[in-house]
TrEMBL record:
It comes from the Eukaryota. This is C-type lectin domain-containing protein. Residues 1-19 form the signal peptide. It comes from Patella caerulea. Residues 21-103 form the Apple domain. InterPro entries: C-type_lectin-like (IPR001304), C-type_lectin-like/link_sf (IPR016186), C-type_lectin/snaclec_domain (IPR050111), CTDL_fold (IPR016187), Pan_app (IPR003609). PANTHER family: MANNOSE, PHOSPHOLIPASE, LECTIN RECEPTOR RELATED. Residues 116-226 form the C-type lectin domain. The lineage of its organism: Eukaryota, Metazoa, Spiralia, Lophotrochozoa, Mollusca. Keywords: Signal. SMART domains: CLECT (SM00034).
Length: 232
């Protein structure tokens, strides 16, 4: 088996090429250090390449997590794992997803941002929306740059209410699902209000602008999913 680390400007990519199966591409997903309990297999004292190889060998594997400190640990998963609301965190844990070839049907590809995204018109609670995005192969949309936020700004008028996106927190500890801070410039004036139970992020449309707000996780809203692919 021929293993190659792909060292272009996207150093987060790990490419596994084999003689008898198509090239597999893994991408290090920008999620917080998370420790997941629902793994298919566990391996100790292996390299990250060996861990990726174990995933390729496991037909149902969609992602793996890896810790390089101390005795290396490799966890193989059936799902593309993501940090849930009550996830355990372990510093230095990194997660790679086996990437899809293209944007799924119904998703829009934004070439300048390299992102596949879809706005959903059905309304769900935040966690149900996140689970649906996960079933699609991704997660709730990360608005973690001004450029990414612009996609939200350009939503049709039919989304002129609150929309779920991929951020959680409370008090002053608010972050996108990749762990990056929700910066002050993205909050709607006066938000986050940190009212009781408002621990999920959304986008509100008011006064001709869309900005972030904290809101109840149990409110049913439209939502936006994004899917990482081997080119996005
Ligand atoms: Ca609020």
């Amino acid at each position: 088996m021929n293993l190659v680390i792909f060292t272009c400007n996207l150093s987060a990519f790990l490419v596994i090429a084999t003689a008898d199966c198509p090239e597999k591409v893994f991408k290090r997903i920008p999620l917080k250090d998370s420790l997941f309990s629902n793994y298919l297999h566990f391996y100790a004292d292996v390299t990250v390449k060996m861990c990726a190889e174990k995933c390729v060998e496991t037909s149902t594997c969609a992602s793996f997590s890896y810790i390089q400190t101390g005795i290396t640990k490799c966890y193989i998963f059936q799902d593309r794992v993501w940090p849930g609301l009550n996830q355990t965190y372990q510093q230095h844990m990194v997660t790679y997803w086996l990437l899809a070839e293209t944007c799924p049907l119904g998703y829009t590809y934004n070439i300048s941002l390299n992102v596949c995204y879809k706005v959903f018109t059905n309304q769900l609670q935040w966690l149900d929306a996140m689970n649906l995005c996960e079933e699609e192969g991704g997660y709730l949309y990360l608005g973690n740059t001004m450029e990414r936020f612009q996609i939200i700004q350009n939503l049709e008028a039919s989304y002129n209410d609150i929309v779920h996106i991929g951020g959680t927190g409370r008090d002053t500890l608010w972050s996108w699902l990749d762990g990056s801070e929700i910066t002050n410039s993205l909050w709607y004036p006066g938000e986050p209000t940190n009212f009781e139970g408002e621990t999920c992020a959304g986008i509100i449309y008011r006064d001709n602008i869309r900005q972030a707000l904290d809101q109840s996780c149990t409110a049913v809203r439209k939502f936006v999913c994004e899917i990482p692919t081997r080119f996005a």
